[in-house]
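Quick start: what a row looks like.
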Amino acid sequence: MGETPDYNELLAYTKQLEHKVAVLEQALHQFQSDGARVKTRFLANISHEIRTPMNAIIGFSHLLGEDEVDGDQREAYIGHITRNSNSLLNVMENLIDLTLIETGNLNLKEYEVDLFGLLRKIYDRYNLDRYRINRERVALLFNVRNTVKGVKVILDGDRLSRAFGCLIENSIRNTSKGVVEIGASFLDKNVMVFSVKDSSGLTLQNKARQVFEKSDKKEEGYDSSDTVVVNYMLAKGLVQAMNGEFMVDNSPFKGTTIEFAIPIRTMSPKYFSMEKSLRELLDGPKEESES
């Protein structure tokens, strides 16, 4: 869909979205009917998460067809449609990935990525989004080391963006005033650490620890209607698919720090075999015991 679509294009687009939603709901129902071990977190609130932006898209699309709509109103309606379309597509993509994770069918699609450019796009997106959700009193900081600039890596950039975005979204939505800082740096020449630090307080940290510090066998206590938990579960599944690990700690901004480390392949050297596990690298060298 172009930047300034006409009325017919918008109606065709909404029909495509409606079809996608129907296909997704049918697929999820089929998973349950087949008795697959699926605990899809979005099923509890799929109606709200998907239907709310869908209704906005359809409503504003029909308003565009009215004769009395002037130029300013048309631009405003198109803005509403674009924002809700992006929101809807993001929910649907998250839903698809979470379903693939829980059915064991997630396949990474690795390709060459300009890492700094990707991180900058993530920052720009959420820096704009914080105004939409009334978080003007939250400063979003971009703390990416200069060593990342110019680096091209082989990884699934879409899944990395989605995992990182889940963490950033939770931090922004749960910080009413203060700071959310996103960062990235090399831990090792082929291990990257990505971080989100915020001023959210301990409530968010407790939920993060509940998800990231428990094994998969202890998931029965999770609240599947809690969007924060859903986002963390999706991030966890995506990062684990990339052979990564999480750490949760206090932040310097009186809130939560969440870090995840993933192995990466840089374009030069082309291949690299890690001699240490991520956990060993994260924990650092062990002190020798005194004899």
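That is the whole record. The beta strands are 111-114, 138-144, 152-155, 178-188, 191-198, 245-250, 256-263, 265-266. The first helix runs from residue 7 to 33.
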